[in-house]
Automatic annotation (TrEMBL):
Pfam families: HATPase_c, HisKA_2, PAS_4. InterPro entries: HATPase_C_sf (IPR036890), HATPase_dom (IPR003594), PAS (IPR000014), PAS-like_dom_sf (IPR035965), PAS_4 (IPR013656), Sig_transdc_His_kin_sub2_dim/P (IPR011495). Residues 243-340 form the Histidine kinase/HSP90-like ATPase domain. SMART domains: HATPase_c (SM00387). PANTHER family: ETHYLENE RESPONSE SENSOR PROTEIN (PTHR41523:SF8), TWO-COMPONENT SYSTEM SENSOR PROTEIN (PTHR41523). It catalyses: ATP + protein L-histidine = ADP + protein N-phospho-L-histidine. GO terms for molecular function: ATP binding; protein histidine kinase activity. This is histidine kinase.
Length: 350
């Protein structure tokens, strides 16, 4: 029995692969006549398989495949001067929705060195593109709504801060006035947080900018003489998630307020320093001053609202609090690392 030539066997194998492919495929001659089409191609584009072999690509269906640019690229691919990589086309058919297609084409060796064959692969990305557009629209809509919310929050915080300051001026009780001032400072710190979050990108907050603006706000509202008291910020290039930045900002606010109120009762000059640095997932935040230091024993103030806030926020960040003498002054450090540490007392803050 005479054996079929190897080239015929390879051609038959190629046809079988094309026809049975789950992806829309066309097997073409050099002059763009269809040798075979996959069943998935016929099904996807509503073409009778019996009408395909021997017809030119431009004659398929009702002529919707007569695309001059595609024909030109296929010709260049056949000549070897180019190839089609992820070329997008719109397939327009009468009484049907336009489909967005991505096509790829390569020369294909079917065993016959005397002729050139092309394999054209088609992917329908209409639904994917529509979903992407919908997602983009939703993202833009969300951004607009978020911007509006942030604007209203900023206005509300300014109103609250103004009301608190007006109330502080009217009350006769020094204790009540002090509480109102404390509330005002905390509202202003929240406003600084909100402002920084509104300008952050990709959900990350740059801590150097954030802490600097926060301390400028605190200094403007609490330091009457800038030559007497000052706040310095030293932060590396760390950027953290928004929720982490909120907790860190509130900790800094409470500790700075505490230092401004208690550390420099009689000093002619004083300085508060905020330092933050990180390495991987580990970070250290310290707030120190060169004031009188923390009173001990019977002279130590009772723990107040500020103490509870700092302790709660540190626990939320899985950090430990360390209190030490700065010689002169006080240093409070909050560390976050993989190792578990027992939390020590934080100095009392109102």
């Amino acid at each position: 029995m005479k054996q079929e030539p190897t080239a015929h066997l390879e051609a038959a194998s190629t046809l079988a692969v094309v026809v049975s492919s789950n992806e829309p495929l066309l097997f073409l001659t050099m002059d763009q006549k269809v040798i075979a089409a996959s069943t998935s191609f016929c099904r996807a584009f509503g073409i009778d398989p019996a009408t395909i072999p021997g017809r030119r690509l431009s004659d398929l269906g009702k002529g919707e495949w007569a695309l001059p640019r595609l024909a030109s690229l296929l010709k260049a691919t056949a000549s070897g001067s180019a190839q089609i990589d992820a070329y997008e086309i719109d397939l327009e058919r009468p009484d049907q929705m336009t489909r967005r297609l991505v096509v790829n084409a390569r020369q294909l060796d079917d065993g016959d060195k005397e002729r050139i064959r092309l394999l054209l692969a088609i992917t329908d990305v209409t639904d994917i593109r529509a979903e992407a557009r919908l997602k983009d629209d939703l993202v833009r809509e969300k951004a607009i709504l978020l911007q509006e919310v942030q604007h209203r929050v900023a206005n509300s915080l300014q109103i609250i801060a103004s009301v608190l300051m007006q109330s502080a001026r009217r009350v006769q009780s020094e204790e009540a006035r002090g509480h109102l001032h404390n509330a005002h400072h905390r509202v202003m710190s929240i406003a600084a947080v909100q402002k920084q979050l509104s300008t952050s990108k990709a959900g990350k907050v740059d801590l150097s900018t954030y802490f600097t603006q926060l301390c400028e706000s605190l200094g403007a509202s609490m330091i009457a003489d800038g030559e007497r008291l000052s706040i310095a910020v030293t932060v590396d290039d760390s950027a953290v998630d928004a929720d982490v930045s909120i907790s860190l900002g509130l900790i800094v606010t409470e500790l700075v307020i505490n230092s401004l109120k208690h550390a420099f009762p009689d000093q002619s000059k004083g300085r508060i320093t905020i330092d933050y640095h990180s390495s991987g997932k580990d970070w250290t935040l310290s707030v120190s001053d060169d004031g009188i230091g923390m009173p001990r024993g019977a002279d130590a103030p009772k723990a107040g609202l500020g103490t509870g806030i700092v302790e709660a926020l540190a626990r939320n960040l899985e950090g430990t609090i360390e209190l030490s003498d700065a010689n002169p002054g006080t240093n409070i450090t909050i560390r976050h690392s993989g190792a578990a540490h027992r939390q020590t007392d934080v100095p009392a803050a109102e």
